[in-house]
């Protein structure tokens, strides 16, 4: 029997709950003791642990957000903060920590490993910006939320013969904008990974309206620009009527998609198998539909970029 603690950290994402459920239920089935930590690394420092039974993770599979709550902690970045957390873990005899979060949370997980704590990472972020996994938790759900939002905007833009400039999240990564752009057949995407020229885009939009189009959609990744400014500039350059919509945190909510529920269930299950196999200090992900794992060093050294082929698909279909 091992004692295993689980926490969620950084920006929440749809599917974190189903990942927690999978780790906890599999852990209990394999005879381990499971602990929840409230509010991420803050909870480790505040000694905010609770023992979890199977019932504690009932009814969360299909809920967005994270019932363990999430937080970003500056204190945990300091050696003093980390020591407090490590002392709490040792005092409680916790053998393993499972961290669900994005890049910043993985740095925290790496810090625990350096203090001798056996730690796992699960890629919890809507941004799809973690190397060595094809997907991150919540990305697919967010893609569906953004696709639905673009559909709603298309209706009204079409009635009023306008250009909709829509800002998607993603921090420094353009994947949400790119893939939502493909799924929605938009006219242009602006992403940080590819240089763009607003003069060219304005000319193409204008040509589209001249050919009889009733609307146009431009998706801007937040890492590539600001929708209000882009809309203003496109209006000035093309003379078309533009409207900006910043989708914001609506993208992080909603019930996780079937894909995110299955993906997280598989990864959560695999964490416990790895513990039973004597493997730790790794972050999990999915590559070519297989659940895989890599050391945090490998992940930090990995390339964080959009799928170039995917970008070509967009360009060839536009
Ligand atoms: O990393 C997830 C994310 O939603 C980014 O896409 C976005 O830039 C950021 O978090 C927003 O952070 P906050 O919720 O702190 O405003």
From TrEMBL:
EC id: 2.7.1.11
Cofactor: Mg(2+)
Active site: residue positions: 127
Subcellular location(s) of the protein: Cytoplasm
Claim: Cytoplasm is one of the keywords in the record: yes
Activity regulation text: Allosterically activated by ADP and other diphosphonucleosides, and allosterically inhibited by phosphoenolpyruvate.
Top-level taxonomic group: Bacteria
Keywords for the protein's UniProt record, in alphabetical order: Allosteric enzyme, ATP-binding, Cytoplasm, Glycolysis, Kinase, Magnesium, Metal-binding, Nucleotide-binding, Transferase
Pathway where it operates: Carbohydrate degradation; glycolysis; D-glyceraldehyde 3-phosphate and glycerone phosphate from D-glucose: step 3/4
PROSITE patterns: PHOSPHOFRUCTOKINASE
Entry similarity comment: Belongs to the phosphofructokinase type A (PFKA) family. ATP-dependent PFK group I subfamily. Prokaryotic clade 'B1' sub-subfamily.
The protein's name in its UniProt record: ATP-dependent 6-phosphofructokinase
Originating species: Halolactibacillus miurensis
